[in-house]
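Feature request disguised as a bug report, sorry. It would help if multi-protein outputs had a clear separator. Right now it looks like this:
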Amino acid sequence: MIEAKQYRKDFGFTNKGNFVKYLKAKDIVMPNWTLIEKRDERIVEVFSRLQKRLLVQSGLDIHSIVEYTRDTIRNNNILYSLNNHGRAIEDVYHTWMQGYIAELVFTPLIESLLSVNDIARNGGDDLTDPSMFKRKADADLRSDKGRYLIDVQAGFGDTKGYDIKYHKVKEALSKKDWKSYVFFADCVNGQYHLQNLNALDEAVFLPNPRWEGQLCHTISNKAFKSFLGD
């Protein structure tokens, strides 16, 4: 094994995993910005049309927001801060952008449901200071007035239910002075559900194969309401 370590060291590596990435050229990442821009066009199209149908409309200029966000990410090399978990970096970016725009578009509806008007972004992925960009497990949104923490989960695929992991509820219950919520947006069927995590202290949690056996509570589609206005 000493010879193997020296062999890798001769290449300039002390970490075996990084050496494997080097051998397979997995360390070379060249984002396809043409693909990213085309996908961003779809995000603009989807959310521009969606927000016009909302019960509580945001009136945001989706095109300008997406363009500014993409340019900020590209010009500050933030793309490489997105954890890919083995996925193509373009896919990771697209998922992140979908979630980011969903938070902005659905915020007025969430404020209406919670009777507050001060909801702001709360996570570490804040583009106002690109040098401090870091994805964290913090709730996406917060209201200091209502003492609310809110995660937004926008679904773009056909699903039979939305899962809440037990550790999320446990974390919510540990925050004594705050109430934690998850806002589910089913963008396939035009429906939403706002779930109070603190109310799930006695709910049933079962191993979920979709999440590698983690304990989860599944919210049925029957609990959802339409987010569409007239």
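(second protein starts here, but nothing in the output says so)
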Amino acid sequence: MKKDDLIYSLIFSEQESFIIDISDYITDIYQYTEFVSMIKSVLKKSKVKISKSNIVMDSKTVLWELKVKK
């Protein structure tokens, strides 16, 4: 899945809760903070509010649990 598809889903889908495997979108999972910041910035510009955000990290992947309000 591409970043554009993810952003589209976060903004326009009816779904409010997401579990995003960041390793699907970036190669270096230790740079996940830049990815999260970029997505948050896009959501803010789109007037989508984040009501819950939690990062779960292990040695192989980073999961971002996210709940949004539109």
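Even a blank line would do. Unrelated, but nice: The beta strands are 17-21, 49-57, 62-69.
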